Amino acid sequence: MIPSGQRKQSPGCYNGKANIAKAEIHDYSCSFIKDELLHYPLLVTKVGAIHPVNTNVEEISMNEPNARTKLVDLSQFVLVIQWNQPICKEFDTDEMNARSVFSLQWLKDWAYDMTSLQSSRLGREISIEHTFIHKYKNAIEEQDQDEIHKRASHKGLISVDYDNVTNEENRDGLLTFLDALFLDGSAIVTNSPSIENETDSDNVVSTVGKVIGGSLSHGYLYGDTFHVKSTTNAINVAYTSRELGPHQDLTYYESKPGFQLLHCASMPLNIIGGESILIDCMAAAHTFRQLAPDLFATLVNCPATFVKDREGARMTYSRPHIVLQSDYCGGGGGNNNNYDNGNGNGNGNGNDIASNGEIVGVHWAPPFEGPLRIHPNCVEDYYRAYAAFELMLDNTKCPRACSQATGLDLSLTTKLASFGNDYTWQSRLKPGEIMVFNNTRMLHGRREFELPKSAETEAMEMERHLIGAYTNIDDSLNRYRVFLNEMDLYRIIPNVGNGSQSALPS
Q1: Which residues fall within 8 angstroms of residue 388, CB to CB, at 6 or more apart?
Q2: Worst-scoring range by mean pLDDT, 292-301, 378-387, 444-453?
Q3: Regarding predicted confidence, which is higher, 412 or 63?
Q4: DSSP assignment, residue 228?
């Protein structure tokens, strides 16, 4: 449909009878293609496009003197197919409606033969190599001084100055920040403005949040910005001094928050504990499948129930802990709940998908889990698999105790626990720092804390005070992609954890 470039005919109009009458490869300099472009400029696909036709009308307007040069720069060759009849029954008999013109590069980018699908998956399915801790360790091993310098100050996390993030003219600073968020899953903003009052603190975290997502999100329960500090009669375990194990926020939403920001407004010097923690649950799931494929399949096939039930909130959402996307027909997203055979594998496709499906989501929030709704025969398997995966995500859990409780071999539980020990980031935030992380990919938490009391220091003590906010993952990913496009850059973006493959062709 001109000029929007969206489909005029639905895929359902395909009649299945069109055959290729002739196929030729041309470059943009041949007279045939020139004439074609003059009359039908939108019929040629643009390299990097998502729609099958070019939606950037201004860029290829034939009124521009060097329009053809722009097209040649995008892709040198095109495939011209002449069909023996119009492909869709609703097309008229115009010869042009029985002709297709494709950029060869576009066809290569969007190819879906199995080799191409598997190759593209390697870049976007998150593994240990994608974690910022691995990148930091690798930089040290390779003696990459530039990479070490970028990551050393915050134990592997890249840090960016507040002014470099929020100054619209400093695109290099913003690029460093967004790259860290989408490629590593987390980053630290340093030197944010000093806090004079609560309004100032809200403005600081809001400003950074809007840089990422355009606007803040998920404000119904706690507000657009919320204050994390220990209170009496707390409505959330986060508002206490107790330990808060690794988890994602708001898993009881259909679409939980994308990026979360936690701005450290104050942190007492004499505090004991209170360190923030992060771990990449997508990388953990990837390793879990390698170490314990049967346990992995259980968490793919058995849905958990996530809940929020208090005054002003009655929310529940059921989903498996690990979500997969299959590259072949007959395989779903991994949520196979047909338990007729009593083993949790449904009609037999569940384990195939668990073995081959691409990991596109993990859902984990122990404090916010409700009653199971699965076949009774699957319950014991579920708890065994749950305990095993938790060993990888929470490095306070004991592999020997897990082995004794579940019957799993101690050698396996030890290997599982080593992931949590090796890939858990732990650090106490300093006033002025903002920890920003992908809530759909990274689990976050906090160590228990206390403030020693004494006559000399009591009056001087501050409270541990973080200010939080959320963004929507779709808006944030879109802003990053558009920003890269504006700067004529390309990144292989790992899956962001929202239940879908995230990478676009180059």
Answers
A1: 288, 292, 295, 402, 406, 408, 412, 413, 416
A2: 444-453
A3: 412
A4: E
Helices 293-301 & 349-356 angle (0-180, nearest 10): 120
- Alpha-carbon 320 to chain mean position: 17
d(CA 40, CA 205) in angstroms, rounded, equals 48
β-pair partners for 99: 82
**Residues whose CB falls within 8 Å of the CB of residue 60, separated by 6 or more in sequence, listed in order:** 37, 41, 42, 44, 46, 54, 67, 70, 71
Q: Which residue has the tokens 């975290």?
A: 205
Q: Which pair of tokens denotes residue 304? A: 């958990």
* Domain parsing of the chain, residue ranges: 11-110, 122-280+427-486, 290-423
Percent of the chain at pLDDT > 90 equals: 56
Task: Tell me if 105 sits within 8 A of 484, measured CB to CB.
Answer: no
Q: What are the pLDDT digits (tens) for 385-409?
A: 999 999 999 999 999 999 999 999 9
Query: Cα(258)–Cα(278) distance, rounded to whole angstroms?
Result: 15
Helix residue ranges per DSSP H, 57-197:
67-74, 104-109, 114-124, 132-142, 145-151, 162-166, 171-179
Q: How many helices (H) and strands (E) would you count in the chain?
A: 16, 19
What is the three-class DSSP state of 464?
A: coil
State the alpha helices, DSSP H only, in 131-270. 132-142, 145-151, 162-166, 171-179, 198-213
CA 259 to CA 491: how far, in whole Å?
19
Cα separation, 37 vs 34, in Å, equals 5
Domain 122-280+427-486 CATH superfamily: Clavaminate synthase-like (3.60.130.10)
CB 467 within 8 A of CB 227: yes
d(CA 467, CA 264): 7
Residue 427 has pLDDT above 80, yes or no: yes
Q: How far is CA 69 from the centre of its chain?
A: 37
Residue 373: Cβ-neighbour burial (10 angstroms; 0-12, 13-18, 19+): exposed
Measured distance CA(33)–CA(38) in Å, rounded: 9
pLDDT at 10 exceeding the cut of 90:
no
Q: Mean of the pLDDT values across residues 275-302?
A: 97
CB 8 within 8 A of CB 15: no
> Which H or E run contains 473?
helix 473-486
Max Cα distance, the chain (Å): 92
Q: Is the pLDDT of residue 333 over 60?
A: no
Instruction: Return d(Cα 326, Cα 117) in angstroms, integer.
Output: 10
How confident is the model over 35-52, as pLDDT tens digits? 665 555 445 555 556 665
Q: Measure Cα distances from 475 to 64, 77, 210, 211 in Å.
A: 33, 34, 10, 11
DSSP code of 8? S
